[in-house]
Amino acid sequence: MKKIITTFIIVAIVVASTMYHNKQQLSSPTISNISLVNINGDINHDAMESLIAPYKAQKDSAMNIVIGSASETMEIALPESSLTRLVADILLAEARKADPEVHMAVTNIGGIRRALYQGNITVGDVFEILPFDNSLLILEYKGSDILALANAIAAKGGESISGLTLDINNNKAENIKINEQPIDTTLTYKVVSTDYLSWGNDQLAPLANYTHSTPLNLMMRDAMLNYLRDNNTLSAPTDKRISLK
Q: Would you say 200 and 145 are in contact if contact means Cβ atoms under 8 Å apart?
């Protein structure tokens, strides 16, 4: 009896599915009340603008808050520049609040999206300079991996670094030092970087070889905002970290 009931249910499902499928085939979609709109960047929609207006005002109010100033304009360039040095210094300073033993910082120049201009710095400026939701990690590496990282940086023609110095000669790294000391392959080094780079992205594959990671629960731009609250005026670091031979 159970077998008969089960068979009946299966047949009923198949029939119902077939009927639904046939009905779908017989039904033709119709489109009515079409109004074509030319997209030219000048469209005004009063109702939508009214809906968005209070949120835009709130966003603009938050983004226009002045949180510091820059003593000069700082640009992005390879092998390094005033802004790439500054960003790396900020990451290192913020990481050392959590762990004073962090040796160096590295991030990719591609994550720094525009210059920092002389004068007032707003919250919106920081979001434009560091727009990506990159979280910071303290990563631990063997000395041999730091040497490999230095060579990856040299192959790219430079990067945003702090605590690390090197010479680039024929796309190879030479005279590699951390805090003015030669790399010791028997030691473990702590590096602050981003979750994005911890996967070895942006041609920095050695960064994926960490032995331990500690999340800081802090995004890059939040590190910069925190730094600005502590250091109201930003000046360009002038020390040489990457030299071309």
A: no
Q: Which of 84, 85, 89, 241 lies closest to 167 in space, CA to CA?
A: 241
CA atoms within 13 A on the CB side of 98: 18
Q: Give the sheet arrangement for strand 212-219, strand by strand.
A: 160-162, 104-107, 188-194, 135-142, 212-219
In the chain the domains, ranked by start, together with CATH numbers, are: 62-244 (3.90.780.10)
Amino acid letter, residue 96? R
Rounded distance, CA 221 to CA 79, Å?
22
- Average pLDDT of the chain? 86
What are the pLDDT digits (tens) for 199-224?
999 999 999 999 999 999 999 999 99
The residue among 111, 101, 93 whose CA lies nearest residue 139 is: 101
